[in-house]
Design a protein that fits this description.
CATH superfamily of the largest domain: Periplasmic binding protein-like II
CATH class of the largest domain: Alpha Beta
Shape: globular
CATH topology of the largest domain: D-Maltodextrin-Binding Protein, domain 2
Oligomer: single chain
C-alpha cells in the first residue's frame, strides 16, 4: 500500500515526537530559583538535562516573592532559595516534602561598571557615588546582607539617601549595568557568570561584615507526591557534580 505524501508526513512527525519524548518519561521539572542563582542554575539545569533527558523550567525571582507564590499555590516542584529562612517557612506551613537542605553559601560583592570609579566600601560615601543599588532586603537575602555590611561599617546613616532598591538581584544588576547606580551590591555568582564576567570591576565583601548567606533548597509537596524528576534534581543539586559547578560560580559548598 502506497502512503500519500500527507499521510507519510504525519507518520514521520509522530515517530519523531515519540523518539523525542522516549527519554523523558518524568516530564518537566519546574524550579523556582532565587535571582542570585539564575546563571548558576542555567548551568546546573543544562547538566541535569544532559544527564537525564529531563527538561527544566526556571522561574526566577527574589526568595521572598517566590515564597509568597508558593503559599498561593504556584505549581513549582523545587524551591532553590538564597537563604534557609524562606524554605524553613515553607516547611513550617506544611508545603514541603521534607525539611530544607543547605546546598551552598553565597558571597556578597560590590560591583561597578562606571569608568573611573573603583569599587570600595569607603567610596560609597564620596560625592562621585550618587546611587547605590541593592536588592530589597525585605524579600532578597543579598539585600539584607548588603544592609548589614553598611551597618557594620557605620555607613548606613551616611548613604541611606543614595540607596536604590531592586525587587531582586536581577533588577539590581540592571541598575548597575545601565549606569543608573554608580555601584551596587550583588552576588559573586553574577560577576563570575559567563554573561557578566569581565564587565566592570568588583570587590568581595568580607564575610564577617554580614550574616552568612546560607542558601537552602526544598522539595515542594504535591497532591500525588513529588515527581521522580523533581526528586532526581533535588539529589543532583546536593551532589558533588553540582557542587563543582556551584564553586565555579563563587559559592562555597560542603565537601
Amino acid at each position: 500500500m502506497k502512503l500519500s505524501p500527507r499521510l507519510l508526513w504525519i507518520c514521520c512527525f509522530l515517530l519523531l515526537a515519540t523518539c523525542r519524548n522516549a527519554g523523558n518519561t518524568e516530564g518537566k521539572v519546574t524550579i523556582a530559583t532565587s535571582a542570585n542563582m539564575q546563571y548558576a542554575m542555567k548551568a546546573l539545569a543544562k547538566r541535569f538535562t544532559d544527564n537525564t533527558g529531563i527538561p527544566c523550567e526556571l522561574i526566577v525571582n527574589s526568595s521572598g516573592k517566590l515564597t509568597a507564590q508558593i503559599r498561593e499555590g504556584a505549581p513549582y516542584d523545587i524551591f532553590v532559595a538564597a537563604n534557609m529562612q524562606y524554605p524553613m517557612e515553607i516547611d513550617r506551613q506544611g508545603l514541603a516534602e521534607a525539611p530544607p537542605a543547605l546546598y551552598a553559601e553565597g558571597q556578597l560583592v560590590l560591583w561597578t561598571i562606571r569608568e573611573g570609579v573603583e569599587p570600595s566600601v569607603e567610596a560609597l560615601a564620596s560625592d562621585e557615588v550618587a546611587h547605590i543599588a541593592l536588592a530589597n532586603p525585605r524579600t532578597a537575602p543579598y539585600g539584607k546582607a548588603a544592609l548589614e555590611c553598611l551597618r557594620h561599617q557605620n555607613l548606613l546613616p551616611v548613604v541611606s539617601d543614595k540607596l536604590v532598591y531592586g525587587e531582586s538581584i536581577s533588577q539590581t544588576n540592571q541598575f548597575i549595568l545601565s549606569g543608573s547606580a554608580e555601584m551596587g551590591f550583588t552576588a559573586m555568582a553574577v560577576v563570575l557568570s559567563p554573561q557578566m564576567k569581565g564587565k566592570g570591576r568588583w570587590i568581595l565583601i568580607p564575610r564577617e561584615w554580614h550574616s552568612p548567606i546560607e542558601q537552602g533548597v526544598v522539595l515542594l509537596k504535591k497532591e500525588k507526591g513529588p515527581g521522580k524528576g523533581a526528586a532526581m534534581f533535588y539529589d543532583f543539586l546536593l551532589s558533588q557534580e553540582a557542587g563543582e559547578i556551584l564553586v565555579n560560580y563563587g559559592y562555597s559548598v560542603d565537601e
